[in-house]
Amino acid sequence: MAKPIKRVSLQSEIIKYIQSYIEEHDLKEGDRLPSQGQFIEMMQVSRTALREAVKTLEAEGIVEVKNGKGIFVGCRGRKATALESLIGFTMERESLIEALEARRAMETELMAMVVRNATDQEMDELGELTEVLMKKVRADERDTEEDKAFHEKIYLMCHNKVFYAVLKVLDEYTDRLWQFPLDIEDPFKASMPYHEMLYQALRERDIKKAQKINNKLLDCVYDDIAIAHQ
């Protein structure tokens, strides 16, 4: 018999519930999931909370919502990401720490490459992205897409296709931290002010300052992972 879920981070719990349902019932791509009404009854959550969680799952390709027909298992409902397939990463604390350690090492060199290779126009474009991001942060609005755009721009500014490709593979995995919150409210919120500071350091073309600020940004992510897995 289905049991109501606990309210830790509601969206995260709903996401986990639906993922577990897919696994436990061995559902494949295209298989129909319970209706929204059935999920609401099973989990005893609001329609709004369920809708937001389903939107997140749909963005990941784990489910597909067909208007007038229902919710179905998506193309990635049972598939691992590229990085998980290659390395066997999971959402366990040790794997997250390893991914962040790799990201820290690569981004240390990334900061130097951006300072050396980025054009003034690219710096202006990064400034515009930073302004949009910080407006969202100060208004306490959801800023996931703006944050992704900020980091994506920095990756491109290194002007090294191989380095960019490797960073994107890593990002494919760490991005899931945003899509599937770690049972904490406002994950990584403490890191947001460092984005503006990082832009300023890059704008000044100060390698050591940029590296130091980027490390502080990643430290905030480490701290949230530690809290989530206590």
From TrEMBL:
SUPFAM superfamilies: GntR ligand-binding domain-like, Winged helix' DNA-binding domain
InterPro entries named among the record's database cross-references: GntR_C, TF_FadR/GntR_C, Tscrpt_reg_HTH_GntR, WH-like_DNA-bd_sf, WH_DNA-bd_sf
Residue span, HTH gntR-type domain: 8-76
Alphabetized UniProt keyword annotations: DNA-binding, Transcription, Transcription regulation
Keyword DNA-binding in record: yes
Bilayer-crossing regions: none
GO molecular function: DNA binding; DNA-binding transcription factor activity
Protein name: GntR family transcriptional regulator
